[in-house]
Structures are given as C-alpha cells and as structure tokens.
Design goal:
It is a single chain. 23% of the residues lie in helices and 33% in strands. It has 4 helices and 10 strands; from the N terminus they run βββαβββααββββα.
Length: 168
C-alpha cells in the first residue's frame, strides 16, 4: 500500500476497523481506505475470516449512484485493506443536528436511500447496519441533495428471510 497510497488522516474508527483519507498516486485522486484493526495475536492471520474481503466483494457487485463504490482490495504486512470512493459531505446524524430538513430534501433522502437498499436487496445483499452514521449527505452544485449509503461491513448474502425476520 505504501507505494501507491499516501495516508493523509483518519476519518473514523469503529469496533473492528478504521477508515482513512488517502491519496492514490497512480490515479491522482483522493480515496477512502478501510483497514481492519487487528490485535497482536491476529497479525499474519486472515482478519475476521475474510470479513473485509466479503464486504468488498458485496460492494463491488453494487454499482449504484447511492452506494459507495469499491475501487480495490489489497493486503500488506498490516493485513487487508479496501480502497473506496471518498465521499464528501456530512453524515445524516450530523446533518439532522442542525437546521430542520426541508420536505424536498427529506424526499430525496428517503427516495435515494430506498433506491440503494432496493439495489442491494435485488442482489440478495442485506445491509444490516443502516443508521444515520452510515448515510452521507452532499449538496450537489445545482442544489440537489446527494445521498450515499456506506459501510456494508455487517452485510450478508441472503436468498430467503430467516425465521426470526419472518416472525417479526
């Protein structure tokens, strides 16, 4: 990774991973890099039984303007990393703390979020962690709201509903 990507700053950290803003020196663009956080015992092993590989493979099949794009998956001495589109803007959780959302913006948020989930579900992928922190909002130059769904880390492939889902 060191030869191609220059890590610039940490964007966020969760229970099992961290996301960094980086610069892709070969393609001359900014990207987001997700790397699993491994404890000392896990170094050299396949992290989380390929969880990051599974997330990358799931996301790579989802070509949609409202779902973050995956560019690459790689590994180095520190483990696996996934290179994704860097999404500018603020999370929905930050966006709703400020001024109230207009009806037009709410309709865009609802429509674009549902379109992203319909695309995932049409490929039998369940996100399983859809929350305001995993939705980014950006104002396009024409004034329209752009929504991107992030973090398919808990997603799973499912061709049928599980018994618990059917019961509820």
């Amino acid at each position: 990774m060191a030869g191609r990507y220059k890590i610039l700053e940490e964007l966020g950290k969760g229970g099992s991973g961290a996301v960094f803003k980086a610069y892709d020196t070969q393609l001359d663009r900014y990207v987001a890099i997700k790397r699993l956080i491994m404890d000392d015992d896990a170094v050299g092993q396949d992290p989380q039984n390929g969880g990051l590989k599974k997330e990358a493979a799931s996301l790579a099949t989802l070509q949609h303007p409202n779902i973050v794009a995956v560019y690459d998956l790689g590994s180095d001495d520190e483990g696996y990393f996934m290179v994704m589109e860097l999404v500018d803007g603020e999370t929905l959780s930050d966006g709703i703390k400020g001024t109230p959302m207009t009806l037009d913006d709410f309709q865009e948020l609802a429509t674009q979020s549902l379109e992203a989930m319909l695309t995932a579900h049409s490929r039998s992928i369940l996100h399983r962690d859809l929350k305001p922190e995993n939705i980014k909002l950006k104002r396009l130059p024409g004034g329209r709201l752009q929504v991107k769904v992030l973090d398919f880390g808990l997603a799973r492939l499912s061709y049928a509903a599980k018994k618990m889902t059917e019961d509820q």
